[in-house]
Amino acid sequence: MSTIIDTFIAPPCSDEIEILYQDEHLVLINKPAGLLSLSGKNPQNIDSVHHRLVKIFHGCTLVHRLDFGTSGLMVVARNKATNAVLCQQFSQRSVTKVYSALLCGHLNSDQGVIDAAIAKDPALFPLMSICTVSGKPARSRYQVVERFSRQLEEGRTLSLTRVQLMPETGRTHQLRIHCQQLGYPILGCDLYGGLQQPGTEKTPRLMLHASELHFEHPVSGEKIAAHNASPF
């Protein structure tokens, strides 16, 4: 059995967490790119969404996470009862998540589904892999918003597609590896091919943003439809 050794040290994140909504039960935030959701084991990785918020909302806990490089909407529970109800909604897949992303290249189809099981492999850490044998089922839908090109130096152009991504499951790195599997990696993705195409190597961040979150308020039962526009 392979031992996982995590050598990643997160660079300092000066961007603030934007609090979009709060009540006595939950907090809705806009997470900046380049901030861990949860503090790592390494003391140099102490800064995180949870580390910052627990100082303001004592006893708060994370219901779900966003990757270090991903920005956007997160819902945070302010007590154990709220956490339990929200976690149940996520596990039952009654929460709808929509992400905005820029993909390398021009997709041929306007919409589609990526159905590819994802597995952990300690030997490849931190990468995940597509594996039909040991992988857990993973399914994502995509919808093209626009196709465009960016002018680069020396007359070169970079073809990009803006998409909405709707994960139906919640596997680690799901959208990133599914887009790579599709053949159009997310721009700026260091793990799954988003910095390999000429003109992509100086991309400042992972171009993936959690733009919509739909769920039921754990106490009132009100349907919450949170929207946060993509910064790119």
Protein architecture, described:
This protein has 232 residues and is mainly beta. It has one domain: Pseudouridine synthase (2-Layer Sandwich), CATH 3.30.2350. The chain contains three helices and twelve strands. Strands 1, 2, 3, 4, 5, 6, 9, 10, 11 and 12 form a ten-stranded mixed beta sheet that branches. Strand 7 and strand 8 form a beta hairpin. The N and C termini lie far apart (41 Å). The mean pLDDT is 95.
Quick tags:
12 strands; ten-stranded mixed beta sheet; 3 helices; 34% strand; Pseudouridine synthase; two-stranded antiparallel ribbon
Secondary-structure content class: mainly beta
State the end-to-end distance: 41 Å
Query: Could you say which overall geometry the principal axes of the C-alpha atoms support?
Result: globular
In CATH terms, the superfamily is Pseudouridine synthase
Order of helices and strands: EEHEEHEEEEEEHEE
Mean pLDDT: 95
Number of helices: 3
What portion of residues belong to β-strands?
25-35%
Determine the fraction of residues in helical runs and give it as a percent range: 10-25%
Radius of gyration, CA atoms, in whole angstroms: 18 Å
CATH topology: Pseudouridine synthase
Which residue ranges are poorly predicted, with pLDDT under 50 across at least 5 consecutive positions? none
Question: What is the number of domains?
Answer: 1
The beta-strand count equals: 12
Largest sheet: 10 strands, mixed
CATH class reads: Alpha Beta
CATH-derived architecture: 2-Layer Sandwich
Protein name: RNA pseudouridine synthase
GO molecular function: catalytic activity, acting on RNA; pseudouridine synthase activity; RNA binding
InterPro entries: PsdUridine_synth_cat_dom_sf, PsdUridine_synth_RluA-like_CS, PsdUridine_synth_RsuA/RluA, RluA_PseudoU_synthase
Family: Belongs to the pseudouridine synthase RluA family.
